[in-house]
Q: What sequence folds into this?
């Protein structure tokens, strides 16, 4: 879908965990960044509009600052938000739950 991708996840503390997994699996080389939305998993469900806004904000920064061409949603709680985020950012968005299924 693109040369470089970024992962948008939940909280800051999950960023190093995701980076470690990407390194272990050999996928880190093309990773432009891993960014946190600042929302906990439960907050994603409690306020979907706020969740989309937070994810879009980080995705836009990943595209403009980190040169990502694709956004990967880094939390199962973000499942189903890919189309809204794609429409807002204009780049492909990968929903990990849908991809896994």
A:
């Amino acid at each position: 879908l693109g040369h470089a991708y970024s992962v948008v996840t939940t909280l800051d503390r999950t960023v190093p965990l995701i980076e470690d997994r990407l390194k272990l699996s050999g996928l880190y080389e093309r990773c432009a960044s891993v960014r946190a939305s600042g929302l906990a998993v439960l907050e994603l469900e409690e306020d979907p509009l706020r969740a989309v806004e937070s994810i879009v904000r980080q995705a836009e920064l990943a595209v403009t600052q980190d040169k990502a061409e694709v956004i990967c949603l880094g939390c199962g709680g973000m499942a189903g938000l890919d189309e809204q985020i794609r429409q807002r950012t204009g780049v492909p968005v990968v929903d990990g739950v849908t991809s896994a299924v």
Summary: The radius of gyration is 12 Å. The chain has a mean pLDDT of 95. The chain is about 45% helix and 20% strand. Residues 73 and 95 are 5 Å apart (CA to CA).
